[in-house]
Automatic annotation (TrEMBL):
<dbReference type="InterPro" id="IPR007484">
    <property type="entry name" value="Peptidase_M28"/>
</dbReference>
<keyword id="KW-0865">Zymogen</keyword>
<keyword id="KW-0479">Metal-binding</keyword>
<comment type="subunit">
    <text>Homodimer. The monomeric form is inactive while the homodimer is active.</text>
</comment>
<keyword id="KW-0256">Endoplasmic reticulum</keyword>
<keyword id="KW-0458">Lysosome</keyword>
<dbReference type="GO" id="GO:0006508">
    <property type="term" value="P:proteolysis"/>
</dbReference>
<dbReference type="GO" id="GO:0070573">
    <property type="term" value="F:metallodipeptidase activity"/>
</dbReference>
<keyword id="KW-0333">Golgi apparatus</keyword>
<keyword id="KW-0482">Metalloprotease</keyword>
<keyword id="KW-0378">Hydrolase</keyword>
<dbReference type="InterPro" id="IPR039866">
    <property type="entry name" value="CPQ"/>
</dbReference>
<keyword id="KW-0862">Zinc</keyword>
<dbReference type="GO" id="GO:0005576">
    <property type="term" value="C:extracellular region"/>
</dbReference>
<keyword id="KW-0964">Secreted</keyword>
<protein>
    <recommendedName>
        <fullName>Carboxypeptidase Q</fullName>
    </recommendedName>
</protein>
<dbReference type="GO" id="GO:0004180">
    <property type="term" value="F:carboxypeptidase activity"/>
</dbReference>
Length: 453
């Protein structure tokens, strides 16, 4: 009884307001005056740090988020086992121009791409041939044989949504090595996927073609890509030395971390909201995607703080291994299907902890119309764009089970400065922008659990 009284004092039975406007106002007020999102992100990034799948950082993040959600008193908190690939960088990545008539030897800022095989300590040396795209590579045919292919396609600055420019330039990173290997290239260098010229190399996922040799593939900073390109135009026999130690190790057991508040009226209908807990092995994975994870936990925490009981079940999900395998998202969908769970919506925040401007979605016309019908409720919070198609990588595998898939859409202009680099640290995230994102997600979850979709 004492416990119950204490509970009631901690969580007074504040009831829902009269209408959606009032309740959304309560969500924003609570988040912007006493939210936990930012301090939780500080812990994840500063105390745990980066969290590549299979690493000790990822294991620590699993345990910490589990405890955090238990401490918040969510109804159910559990770990969902999933086997993940374990890639290890293995050592310092080196890229050097070795015979520049202008500069002699010159070291470039480089990072091996994820899932790549390294050169080992002996390294490799080769002539460099520059292309702007995979199409251009194919035109060269066997001219690239025995050479290092340098993919130097910039992100298109004319695209207003930076994710579009990223998507367009991404194939050179994700499948450039596989394509170059088919033609007999010995390695690839790729211009970092960033819309700024600076000295940060950006890592990221790449996939080999199993029928061809797994050649080393490293990213160089945009500044060094510009430099290499200009030196090549003056000196076509330029040689580059590359050294890296990447290695795919045996798979490891890891987990999706799940916290749930059961619906009071229609508990069978589930609304999942989440981000991916893993990150690359550089920086602190603050924007990508510590922000999304902390926002998702905050959505449920706000329900506890406000003393609200959702009509439908709401679930915070930290997916594991989005970056170099997507195993967590796939396993989550597989288990949901096996258990016969009914997801009505899945919401993902994996575009950085920046100022939210809308939600993108994939679903039936009636689902998307329902989402758009809430536009006026979001307008006071300057979340205005509910019309864009999209969703998210981790929720994608749920598609055939019928929920609407929704992505939080923050302002995209600065995301690719930080993405997959040493610069993606806690200090790069703005508290207010992060909290506005958490509040926008909570407001959307509230509308869906109340009205269905
Ligand atoms: Zn991400």
């Amino acid at each position: 009884m004492k416990k119950l009284l204490l509970f009631l004092t901690l969580f007074p039975a504040v009831v829902f307001g009269q209408n959606h406007e009032e309740n959304i106002r309560k969500i924003y007020d609570a988040e912007l005056s006493s939210g936990h999102t930012y301090e939780n992100l500080r812990y994840l990034t500063k105390r745990i740090g980066n969290r590549l799948a299979g690493s000790s950082g990822a294991a620590a993040a699993v345990e910490w988020t589990r405890q955090l959600m238990e401490n918040y008193g969510f109804d159910t908190v559990y770990l969902q086992p999933v086997m993940v690939p374990h890639w290890d960088r293995g050592g310092k990545d080196v890229v050097k121009i070795v015979n520049s008539t202008k500069h002699g030897t010159l070291e470039l800022s480089a990072l091996a791409l994820g899932n790549t095989e390294g050169t080992g300590p002996s390294g490799l040396v080769g002539n460099v041939i520059e292309v702007k795209s995979i199409a251009e590579l194919r035109e060269l045919g066997d001219k690239v044989k025995g050479k290092i292919v340098f993919f130097n396609g910039p992100m298109d600055p004319k695209k207003i949504d930076a994710f579009e420019a990223y998507g367009e330039a991404n194939p050179q990173r994700s499948s450039g090595a596989a394509e170059a290997s088919k033609l007999g290239a010995i390695a690839t260098l790729v211009r970092s996927l960033s819309n700024r010229i600076d000295d940060y190399p950006h890592t990221g996922n790449q996939r080999y073609n199993p029928d061809f040799p797994k050649i080393p593939a490293l990213a160089i900073s945009t500044e060094d890509a510009e430099l290499l390109s200009s030196l090549l135009s003056d000196q076509s026999d330029l040689k580059v030395y590359m050294e890296s130690y990447g290695q795919m190790k045996t798979e490891k057991l890891s987990y999706n971390v799940i916290g749930e508040i059961r619906g009071s009226e229609i508990p069978k209908e589930i609304i999942a909201v989440g981000g991916h807990l893993d990150s690359w092995d550089v920086g602190e994975g603050a924007h990508d995607d510590g922000s999304g994870c902390m926002q998702a936990i905050e959505v449920l925490r706000l329900y506890k703080e406000l003393g609200w009981k959702p009509k439908r079940t709401i679930r915070a999900v930290m997916w594991m291994n989005e970056e170099n395998g997507l195993r967590g998202g796939q396993e989550y969908a597989r288990v949901a299907k096996e258990k016969g769970e009914k997801h009505i919506a899945a919401i993902e925040s994996d575009s950085g902890g920046f100022l939210p401007i809308g939600f993108s979605s994939t679903g039936t016309e009636s689902q998307r119309e329902k989402l758009k019908s809430w536009g006026d409720l979001f307008k006071p919070y300057q979340v205005w764009n509910l019309d864009r198609p999209g969703g998210g990588a981790d929720i994608g595998p749920l598609r055939d089970q019928g929920p609407i898939l929704i992505g939080l859409k923050p302002d995209s202009q600065k995301y690719f400065i930080y993405h997959h680099t040493e610069a993606d640290v806690f200090e790069a995230v703005d508290q207010r922008e992060l909290e506005l994102g958490a509040a926008a997600m909570a407001a959307l979850v509230y509308l869906i659990e109340q009205e269905g979709i």
